[in-house]
Amino acid sequence: MTGFTPQELEEMAQADAEIDREFEADWDLELPPPVPQLVWVSRLARQHHTTYGRFVSTHTEEEIRELVEQLKGETR
User: Fold this and answer.
1) Diameter of the chain measured on Cα atoms
2) How far apart are CA 16 and CA 41, in angstroms?
């Protein structure tokens, strides 16, 4: 015997089911963490066959921002 009454076992089962439902609902809503800007710029540098430092020194902030947005659009 488990030491629990049938009513207690039923209440525990209901509580477990409620926890599972809440977990599943929360799990579906969670978004993946955003990719840091450094990662996007590093990817761009690789695409341009250069290093991060050279890429950053040869492009303006605005150019980099536009290229990052384009890259993000391609990966979605």
Assistant:
1) 75
2) 45
* Exposure string for 39-69, b = 16+ CB within 10 A, e = fewer: ebbebbbeeeeeeeeebeeebeeeebeebbe
pTM over 0.85: no
**Residues present in the chain in total:** 76
Q: Are 64 and 44 in contact (CB under 8 A)?
A: yes
Which tokens is 21 given? 């439902």
Q: What is the residue-level pLDDT of the chain in tens, covering all 76 positions?
A: 468 899 988 998 998 888 888 877 766 666 666 789 999 999 999 999 999 999 999 999 999 999 999 998 887 6
Which two tokens mark 28?
């579906």
Find tokens 């990817």 and name the residue: 43
Instruction: Indicate the DSSP class of residue 33.
Output: P
